[in-house]
Amino acid sequence: MLKSLKEIDLTMLHVTNEGTTLVKQAEDFASNKKAFVWKIIKLHDKYVTYVTECLQGHTLFHKALKEAFEVFCNKGVSGSSSAELPASFCDNILKKGCSEKLSDEAIEDALEKADICP
């Protein structure tokens, strides 16, 4: 059991480090917040898939993933919290979805994926 807990802690640390790196990069390139949100979404998708497929969806790994995202989603990026950026992203999708000729499915998918910061 101790080995498993160590693996869970290492997973959380790894995901936290990747997310924190994205936050630091976003601070350097503050003008492209949309790209930052997409990178966070891709990071989340990557690790949810990993936990689901490789770790049999183990609840402790899902919890570690959630906690890792809480760490860097609560950090500030260019005057906004990382949690505010997905909200702004969703607002822009809803406003510009029609003008960018996105399908209803594409809009719904983007909105669903943007709900990653606890």
UniProtKB/TrEMBL annotation:
One of its GO terms (biological process) is ubiquitin-dependent protein catabolic process. It comes from the Eukaryota. GO terms for molecular function: ubiquitin protein ligase binding. Signal peptide: none annotated. Residues 14-114 form the Cullin N-terminal domain. This is Cullin N-terminal domain-containing protein. It comes from Zizania palustris.
